[in-house]
Design a protein that fits this description.
Layout: E1 8-11, H1 15-27, E2 32-35, E3 51-54, E4 61-64, E5 69-72, H2 78-86, H3 102-107, H4 115-118, E6 128-131, E7 137-140, H5 146-152
Amino acid sequence: MVDKRPLLIARCADAADVIAAVNFGRDAKLPIAIRGRWPQRAGFGSVDDGLVIDMSMMKGVRVDPKNRTVRVGPGCTTGDVDHATHAFGQAVPFGIISTTGVAGLTLSGGHGYLGRQYGLASDNLIEADVVLADGSFVTANEVENVDLLWALRGGGGISES
């Protein structure tokens, strides 16, 4: 369905690889696309004649049952997260298809069965580690880089008041 031909694909294993890829792509003046999980049927995770930063190998789910939170790598699927959280009697309000990547799902809203009671996946995002376009690594949460967290959650709407 998507016929894009990247010049390079950086298959990242960790944040250091992502930083190196961002710096390389920026310095080489290449268009960059980010891929959290393959396949991405809409084609947003690829680019013609540019660099794809592929984070699909960056998998890992760490459940904190005491605080009822979960830290998830960008290459995980909803099935990966469901498998890990169910062992603790918990669930995340993600989508309904177990092969969907959580990074794209969360950053684009994330509708699922639990949405009516718990909101969208993006509403439940409490922290994110982000590599910025300048290659710097930051954490966005309610204390640090609050505006970035707001943007990652969808940026809200325009207030009429």
